What we know:
Chain A has 443 residues and is an alpha+beta fold. Chain A has three domains: 217 residues, no CATH class; 78 residues, Single alpha-helices involved in coiled-coils or other helix-helix interfaces; 134 residues, 2-Layer Sandwich (Heat Shock Protein 90), CATH 3.30.565.10. Chain A has 14 helices and five strands. A five-stranded mixed beta sheet of chain A has the order 1-2-3-5-4, with helices on one face. In chain A, α13 links the parallel β1 and β2. In chain A, α6 runs parallel beside α9 and α9 runs antiparallel to α10.
Amino acid sequence: MKINREQSDNSRPPVTGQSILMESMMHLNFWILAFVLVVISRATAGIVHERSALSFLTQTESIPLLPLNTIIAVAALYLCLIILLSLSGEKGINLVLKLCLETVSVIWISELIGFSYTGMFLMVFADLMRNPLSRRDRTIAIVAMGIFYLVLDSSVLNFWLRRISIDDYLIYYGNEYAGLIKGALNIGSLLNTFLFMLFMIYQVRKHMNENERIMMLNESLKEANIKLEEYSKTSALMAQTKERNRLAREIHDTIGHSLTGIVTGLDACLMMFDKDRDLVKTQLGAIAEVARSGMTDVRQSVKALRPDALEKLPLDEAIEKLIDEMGRSTGVNINYHCLCKLSDSFDENEEETIYRTIQESITNSISHGNASNINIEIKRSEDNMLTIVVKDNGRGSSNPEKGFGLTHMEERLNMLGGSLYIDGSDGFTVRARMPIRWGSSLK
Amino acid sequence: MIRIRTGYIICILLLLTALFFSTGIVDMIQVNKGTELKIGVFADSYWGVHNGYEHRIPDDAISLFQNEHPGIRISYETGILKEDYTEWLAEQIMKGEAPDVFLVMPEDFDLLIKMQALEDITAYVDRDSDFNKEIFYRSAYRFGSFDGAQYLLPFECAPELMFANGTILKEKGIDLPSLNWTWDDFYKICKIVNAPVTDPAAKDKRAEIFGTVNYTWKEAFASNGNRLFSPDGRECNFSDTKVTTALTFLDELNSLNEGNKDNARYFEKGNVAFQPMYYSSYRNYVKNPLRESLYEDFELTFLTMPAGYDGDNTSILDTLCVGMYSKSRHKKEAWDFIKMLTTDETVQSEIFRYSEGLSPCRDITERELKKELEESAYGARSINMDVVRHAMDTAVPKYSFYGQDDAESAVEYAVNEILSGEGNIRMEQVIQDRKIKGILSNI
C-alpha cells in the first residue's frame, strides 16, 4: 500500500479534492478486501477443523480456492489495479487499454472472492470519469462499464460460474456473527459508494466551474472589443480635429495675416490714390512685398502639411510604410507590387499625388468596401504613363459616385495631366494614370 | 513516459502472478522435485467388514506400480474408516490437499461431479491403447459415466442376488428355479413354503417357515424394469404403471407373510426360503469362520432375482469406483495408477482374497470363481457361475446421487403407506408421487 501511495503522489503532483477521494477509495477498498479475505480464510480453517467440510461442500457444490493462493492473487491484482489507477495523463488507445486492464483486474478480484464484493468497480468508473474522452467514447465506455457493474453486482455471473461467495462461508460463523460481518461489509460498501458520489459531485462541479469561467471570459472579451472600437473612433476623430486646428492655425497665421495686411494696405491706397500717387506706388510695393511674403508662407505651410512619411522618406519606402501600417492596424491583407522605380523620379507634387491616391484608395476600400484583401500595382505603361491600380475584394458599388476624396484625387491628377477611372462591379477598382515627365530617369 | 511504461510492466507482472496463484500453477512448481502421487483409500472394507486386510490391495498395487514406474512415489493416509472417508475427502479438497486418485463411493459420485472435482477420463479411456473398456462388465463400467462422459472406473462390485435355502425347497419338493424365473414362480414357491405344516414332527423342527424376507420395493422395482430416480436424483416417476404392478405384487407377497416382517436372522436360522442379499454379504458369511456356522445346517444357494411382470431378472449392482481429482498435477501418472488398480490381473484377483466383492473385470471374476469352485474353497457350497454371469450382465447400478438415503426413505414410507392402507393403489401412487417429488426438491 505504501509503495503505491508514494507512486500515486509522485505522478499526480496537484493534490485536489478528487485525488484525495480517489486515494480514500483505494484505502477503503483495500481494507474491505482484506476483511473479506480474513473472513474466508478463517472460515475455511474452521470448517476443516470442525469436520464439517462435507456439509459445506455439499452446500456450495464447488471446490473452494486455497485461501493462501487467493490472498496472494488478490493482493497482486489489487496492487496492479492501484498502479493503473495512479497512472495519469493517458490518452486515446492507451487510456482505453488502461481502463480495460483495470476492468479485468476488478472482475478477476471479484471472481476470486466469489463475487462477495464488487465495489472496486466504482474506482474504475471514477477513473473513467476524470479522464478526457470524446463524448462518443465516453458514452460507450460508461454504457460498457455500467453493464459490467450490473452483471458483477447482481449474482448473474455466480449463477453460471458457481463460485463460493462469502455468504456460504458466513454459515460457519453462526447467525449472530454472520449478521455482524455482513453488516460491516455493507457499511464498507456504502461508504465506498458515498466516496464515489462525492467524487462525481466534484467532477460535475469542476465541469460547471470551467463552463462558467469560459462564459465570463467571453463576456469580458466582448466588452474589451467594444471599448477598443469606440476608442479607435474617438482617436480618428481627434486626429481629424487636430488636423483641422492645425490647418486653421496655418491659414490664420499665414494667409490670414498676409491678406489682412494686403487688404488694409489696399484700403489705404484707395484713400490716398487721388492725393499722393507716389506714396500709393510705394505702398503698393510694400503690399506686393507682403503678398510675396505671404505666398512664401503659404508655400511653407503647404510643405508643412505634407504627409510626414513622405517628408522624411523616399516615395517607395513611404508607400511601403503606409501599406505596412495600414495592413497591420486594420488586419487587411494588402499586396503591393511596384514594377518601376519611384523615388527620385517625381517632383514633390507628383509624389504627393501618387501617395495620396494610394492612401485614399486603401482608406476607401477599408472603410466603404469593407474589403479583406487589397491588391496594389504600380507600373509604367507603353505610352509613358504611370499606372496605379488599386483593386479590392470588397462590396464594390454598382453605381459608384465620386465623393470628396475621389474628386480631390481626380483634380490633383487632372492638374498633372493624368486621369482617374473607377469600377465598382467586381470589388472596387481605382485606376489612376499620370504622365511621366522625366521619362529618361525612369527605367 | 518512462514511469508510465514501468507502471505497465509492473502491472503485467502482477497479473501474471495472480494467474499463477489463482490457477495453482505455483503449487506445481513447488512439487516439481519428483512425482508424488497421493491416493485416497479407506482402511476397512467397502462391504462393511473388518477383515484384517487393511490397505492390503492398495499396498500391493502401489508396489507393483512403482516397479513399473520407478521414480514415482505414492502415498496415502492410513487409518481412515469408510464412514469418515467422505468427510476426510471433503477436508482434503478444502485444504487443497486432495489425493490425485481416490476411491469414490456411489453416494458421493453425484456431489463430486457437481463440484467438478472429478476429472473427465473419457479421453484417456478412448486414447489409451493399453486400455480396453470391454474387459469390464458393462453394468459396472456404466456406473462411472455421467451425461455421456466417463468419470470413474469400477474397482470392486457386488450384485444383489436371491439366496435360497435349498433344504427347505427340497423338503417341499420344489425344484431350484431356473435363471429366468419370474414373480409368478416366486409367488408360487412362497405360497407352498408358507402353507401350514401338517406333519407334527416337522412342526417342532421348524416352527415357522416363511417364503421370503427382505424382498423390498428396491428389488421389486429393479426387477420390474422401473428406474425410479433420474441419475441426479431430482426426478422421480413413482406414478409409473410399472410401479403399480410392482406394488401389487409386493402386496400379494406381503399377504403371504402376514404378521412376520423382515428379519434376516430367520434366514440364517434356516426358517426362510428366499432372501435377497448382496454377493459381498454372502462372501462375508462364507469366508468368516464365525458366521459360517450359521449356515451349517442347511444348503445355501443363490439365484437370479425373479423377473417382474414388466421387467427382467435384473439385479442391483453396488460398485466401488476409482476416480481422478480434476485438479491433479500428475494426471498421466494418475491415469496409469487408476488403470493398474482397475485392470491389473494381480491387483484385481486380490479382491477375491482380501475383500468380499467381485472384480468388475469379467475374465478375472470368472477365472477366480472357477478356481475357488475347483479348490472347493468354501466347503461344499456351490457357486453357480451362470447366475453370477447373468446377474452381472443384466444388473442396474445402485442409485448414486446425493441425498439418496432421504429419497429412499421417502419411497420406503410411501410404499409402506400404500401397502398397509386399503385405498386404491393408483390413486395413492399419485398422491405419494407428489410427496416424494416435494422431498426431492428440498434435498
